[in-house]
Amino acid sequence: MRKSAPPARRMAWVWLLAALLAFGGGYWLGGAGESHKEPAMAGHEHEHAAAANGSGANGSSTGESDVAYWTCSMHPWIRLPEPGLCPICAMDLIPVAKGRQEDAPTSLRAVTLSPAARALAQVALAPVERRTVDVATRLLGRIEVDETSQAYITARVAGRLDRLHVNVTGGMVKAGQVMAEIYSPELVAAQAELLEARKAVARLAADAPALLRDTAARTERAALEKLRLLGFSAAETEAVLKRGAPADRMALSAPAGGVVVRKDVQEGAYVATGTRLYAIADLSRVWAVFEAYEADLPWLRMGAAVRFEATGIPGETFTGAVAFIDPVIDTMTRTFRVRLDVANPGGRLKPGMLVHAVQQTAAGNGNDAADAGQVLTIPASAALVTGARAIVYVADPDTPGSYAGREIVLGPRAGDRYVVRQGLAEGEMVVARGNFLVDSAAQLMAAPSMMLPEGAGVPGALPGVPPPFLRQLPGLDAPAEAVRVAAGGTDLETGRQAFAALGQALAALDASTLVDEPALHWKELAMLLGNDVRLGRDSRSMTELRGHARDLAARMDRLRHTFDYAALASGSGGPGGPGGPGGPGAPAPEAVQQQLGAVLAAYLRLQEALARDDAPAAQAAVQALGDVWRTVKSGAAGFAGFSDEAAAAFAAVQAEMDAGLAVMQDQATLEQVRAGFQPVSNALIQAAQTLGIVSQGELFRLHCPMAFDYQGADWLQPDPDIRNPYFGHLMPGCGDVTGQLPLAK
Predict the structure, then answer these.
(1) Which of 61, 200, 414, 538 is the most exposed place for a label (fewest CB within 10 A)?
(2) Which residues are CB-contacts of 62 (< 8 A; sequence separation ≥ 6)?
(3) Do the beta carbons of residue 486 and residue 479 sit within 8 Å?
(4) Residue 420 and residue 465: Cα distance in Å, rounded?
(5) Which residues are in the DUF3347 domain (predicted)?
């Protein structure tokens, strides 16, 4: 047996491997060709300590003016303007030099790699090309009997098969041909009943009572009907009556002509009622049943002509039309059945014969293969696929090594390429190799990526958004609401039209006044909303449309949260506008404002309880909040003294407040209370901006970007000292002050 290496030698190899990995990480992030390199450090604590002291790895001091922001090496989406501790792991923050920052980013998803990093990732680009893409769909199958042309001969009565006139399978028979003869006591008795009924009718004199004549006639008709149901033809029944004696056997005839494909009985056998004796099939038309892979589904459609060949008839091509596509995928083989109706006048195609087809289909950018022609395509390796959507990284032609992530809508896959339905332009260069590593770099920067679709979270209301742009955004609310209503119905075309109307409203927006961060966020949201519109407009079922409507609702919530245009639409001016500390835009009556002050007081008690993780206090605060809110609704009933704008604003506040309280009052845990706390916070923010709240002191709006899986959430406090109600003691200081709201004194 080979001896293991001594412990000292094994430890030496471990330390050597760790040093190599650390050197490789520094090579990736800093680039091997840079003038100075950071040597690998032995421990994470040493790295943080050096950063906290303001010294780089080379011993030089990093001046405060050279620091762009402070971040955590374990949680790089944390970016703070001053040194301190990470709000997640409580480790020392490290500085990021201004030279490492991008100048004037053009996208929230922008990523820049050094030449060395690009070389390590082996980044390769490919153009977006317009092509005529032909897809070869290979199908294997067999010939089967057309089930609609099959006929069965069954025993209508129990009895003994005295004779089989057709005793082998494969024989040709004609319609009406006698196949077998059966003896049945039941048949003999039924014939005797008919003969006796006929005699009874004949014995009645013409002057017999009408009741007797009618009864005898009904008995005769019942006997005739019984024989008909047992399989006697009119001619056979007439023969029995003419003969005056029952026949001991009945002939069983073929109901249709064709080939006997099955014989299930033997001569002399006793059979029960309903026993199948023969199966006859008309082989002048047959089925060609193929197995197709799941990925071939976009290329097959009903009615399409498919040419195929049979293994047993080499050199000859047959044609059939697609008559059936199996609605269920076989979970074991990941295939589905495709059936062709095929004319077979000479009977050359025989059931069980193997067949194969290669269908050439021109790819399109729509929902099926019928939309043919030249279409935009990208290499399949360029797309990081997430369902019908995908992430691609587009190279900046003016800045080598700079890439912008973009969500696009894919069409079907055609060989080694994807059809692009929306999101790219011909001639753009996309990352076709190394895109997973580029996406990983985006994740480290907390930028939106495949794994983190919203990056570090949705920001609070953006400051500095031009009012002319904000005034356009409410124009999206009505078509978005129409989509929601249509998704709750059953008419697919109505839902498609609602999405199309939203697309027109989106295209009509003028974003030319946006600059800097608002421009980047609008570019991101416009891209996502446009993709929702395209997918919803092309939906093929109500289930699919409802899924896209849910995605759209989430985007619209993000839009309202990011740009906070509701206040401006009601006259309050929006974030940083006239509706800021100057006062509400659609004031409610003073009595309602005072009642809203009581709601705010109960809300602030709930906020403090959640920040302390105090469940009993939180439950008591929820109860108090619900009580005072019911008082407010009672006082505002009928909207007496409200202007039209104030009534509309109160209705919006009430919807959010009721939704949040419904979640919290049905609560059992702090997590459920926190889930309802978010809409309640949004309601009070809107109330302060539009209706007005009478309260003493100050009111600050804060935002936590990490709440609810990085979706972000706002809350209110009477002071700017952050006490996070969404995480409590886990991250009490996580959040930012995004503004101060007006209070009526």
Answers:
(1) 61
(2) 54, 55, 56, 95, 97
(3) no
(4) 33
(5) 599-693
For the chain, residues with pLDDT lower than 50 are 1-62, 100-102, 366-371, 569-582
Please give the Cα distance from 548 to 538 (Å, whole number): 10
Domain locations along the chain: 1-40, 43-101, 137-146+282-362, 147-281, 467-563, 590-741
In angstroms, the Cα distances linking 277 to 154, 184, 266, 269, 284 are: 5, 15, 9, 11, 23
Take residue 357 and report the two structure tokens written for it.
Answer: 């087809």
Helix (H) or strand (E) holding 44: helix 44-52
**8 A C-beta contact, residue 387 and residue 438:** no
Q: What is the pLDDT of residue 77?
A: 61
Instruction: Specify the DSSP class assigned to residue 100.
Output: G
For residue 75, the model assigns a pLDDT of 66
What are 675-684's pLDDT values in tens digits?
Answer: 889 889 988 9
The pLDDT value given to residue 226: 87
Q: What is the pLDDT of residue 598?
A: 92
Q: Which two tokens stand for residue 7?
A: 């412990």
**β pairing state of 417-422 and 374-379:** antiparallel
The CATH number assigned to the domain with range 147-281 reads 2.40.50.100
Tokens of 551: 């995605």
Instruction: Quote the tokens at residue 563.
Output: 């740009």
218 class by beta-carbon count within 10 Å (0-12 exposed, 13-18 middle, 19+ buried): exposed
Query: How far is C-alpha 207 from the chain's CA centre?
Result: 83
Report helix, strand or coil for 631: helix
pLDDT of residue 363: 62
Helix (H) / strand (E) element for 227: namely helix 210-229
Q: Which helix (H) or strand (E) holds 665?
A: none
Q: How buried is residue 508: exposed, middle or buried, by Cβ count under 10 Å (0-12/13-18/19+)?
A: exposed
Spatial CB neighbours of 11, under 8 Å, sequence gap ≥ 6 = none
Q: What is the pLDDT of residue 367?
A: 44
In this prediction, residue 567 carries a pLDDT of 54
743: its two tokens: 């209070």
In this prediction, residue 364 carries a pLDDT of: 56
**DSSP-derived 3-state class of residue 509:** coil
DSSP letter at 278 equals E
What torsion, rounded to 10 degrees, do the Cα atoms 416, 422, 428, 433 define? -40
Phi, psi (rounded to 5 degrees) for 129: -120, 150
CATH of domain 137-146+282-362: 2.40.30.170
Distance CA 110, CA 103 (A): 11
Tokens of 484: 């929601």
pLDDT at res. 4: 39
| Rounded CA separation 696/573 (Å) | 23
For residues 583 and 742, the answer to whether their CB atoms sit within 8 Å is yes
Residue 354, token pair as written in the block: 């193997």
Residue with tokens 């760790």: 18
Q: What is the radius of gyration, based on Cα positions, of the chain? A: 40
| pTM (whole model) above 0.90 | no
- The SS3 of residue 556 is helix
Amino acid present at 679: P
Chain-centre distance of CA 730, in angstroms?
Answer: 33
